[in-house]
Structure formats: structure tokens, C-alpha cells
Amino acid sequence: MPAHYALLVDPRLYDLTGATGALEHDTWTVSSRKAHPGDRIIFWQTKDHMGRRGIVVFGIVTEEARERTAFPESAPFFRGEIAASDLRLRLVVRYVMPAALPLWLDEDETGTLKGLTVARGRGNHLFTVTDDQWDAIVAMVGGWPGDA
Question: Does the residue 47 lie in any domain?
Fold first, then answer.
């Protein structure tokens, strides 16, 4: 059974919306090597210019974290001080975009999103998502896409 994690995405530093529209796979800077191929990721956007924050896309880890630069095709989506050419601990993720995403924190009447540690987090940590939290989130988007 795969593990479930969440990563923070600051829209001032990386254009995740643009990246998910253009890329199938992407690299993500992490602070540990605990995620493994097959593990699933929630990408949590921090507040954007409209004050929205929440889950914008899912992902599946396809390659272990190792020291690497970002994929060259990711470079146009970097906006901040971290450059695609910086050598960092990065894992490779395939994006999965159910039609019901994004899920915004201020629209969640169930309290599920508020209960995620990533909702209060900072940095490039892999925040653990429990099996119950994962199941609740997948149910909120109508299930995991069949071909993912």
C-alpha cells in the first residue's frame, strides 16, 4: 500500500498551474528521502493573490529523491529564488488531476483540509497524510482517476 504525503507550493515561487498544464512529470525539492515510487502526493498551494489555499493537484512518485537539478522543461515555471539549475534533493512526480480539483480550504465544509498538517506547514517537507485523511480527500474529488 502506498504512503501518502503533502507538499507545499508557494505560487510566488513556482507556477504549478502552468506546470500541470504543460508537464506530465516534474521534479520537486524535498528535505528527506522518505517517499518512494508509488507513493501519492497532495500538492498544497499556499495563499495566492486571491487569498486561496488548498489542494491543486495530486501526484504519484515515480523516482526516488536524489541530488539533481530540475527537469529543463520545468525551468519556465520557476518564479523565485530557487532556480531549476540548482542541485537539490528532488524526487520525480507524475501529476494526476481529477476534474474536481482544486479543493480550497475556505470552501471545505467538512473540516478535512483544515486537519491536514500541511495546512499549517512551512518549507519543503513531506507532510504525512494519514490513510483516513487520504480516503476522505479522494472521496471529495469523486475517487482516484482510473488510469492514474
Answer: yes
Q: Is residue 76 within 8 Å of residue 19, measured between CB atoms?
A: no
- Does some domain include residue 56? yes
CATH of the domain at 24: 3.10.590.10
Q: How far is 92 from 62, CA to CA, in rounded Å?
A: 6
C-alpha to C-alpha distance for 22 and 64, rounded to whole angstroms: 22
Per-residue pLDDT of the chain (148 residues; tens, 9 = 90+): 899 999 999 998 899 999 999 999 999 999 999 999 999 999 999 988 888 999 999 999 999 999 999 999 999 998 877 777 888 999 999 999 998 999 999 999 999 999 999 998 887 789 999 999 999 999 999 998 875 5
148, part of any domain: no
CA distance 56 to 39: 17
- Domain annotation covers residue 51: yes
